Phage tail protein
Amino acid sequence: MSQELDLRGLLEGRVKTLENEVEGTRQRVYGVTLGTVTSLLDPKGLGRVKVKFPWLSSQVDSAWARIATAWAGGSRGTYLLPEVDDEVLVAFSHGDLKHPYIIGFLWNDTNRPPEFSPLLERRELKSKSGHRVIFDDFTGLQGLTLESQGGHKIKLDDTIGGMQISVTDSSHNLSLVIDSTQGTISITSKVGRIELNAAAGQISLNATSVDVHATGALSLKGDGAVTINGATVRIN
């Protein structure tokens, strides 16, 4: 049984399998066509994928297809491969079915976008497990957020009147906040404790005023000499 393809890659009536018979007939498909990813197991480790086409039998896969990424070079570039069953846009080098290229990725009714912002005020990168990089461009509410699937978050907030850099755990009990508007740095632990360790170094606290307050016991201990200096020293 054989197939022939018209210029749009549609069924014309007779089909041959891509891997076994296209090589001999040199059938050509010009333009682009849709495909669905079937395999990522590239034996050469080049980031290539195999796809199936809606106009061929589901048992027929393409040759290994290279991916046109935003940036590629020796041990560098954007490494963002599609998943199996993702829809892709495929073109063929000089129309040759033996040399497919993935030139784009497509959302559809089954695989929908991670975010919908018709005003283009939010853009997002989201991984399969749910890790996110979010770019907010709302007027007066600009910022960048890096968030893990588990809810841990780093946020660079350029909101007018509230510019902050914050690191927050998923429970919101632990946080580090650098507030550019207030000129403050806050380290908070609502549970557990905060530790500062410099095993082979020194910890220095320098400020106009230093306040140490404990709602319970307070312990100051030195394995060596303890020195307290001040214009006035009061112990109550």
About this structure: Residues 8-105 form a domain with the OB fold (Dihydrolipoamide Acetyltransferase, E2P) fold (CATH 2.40.50.230). The CA atoms of residues 5 and 12 lie 5 Å apart.
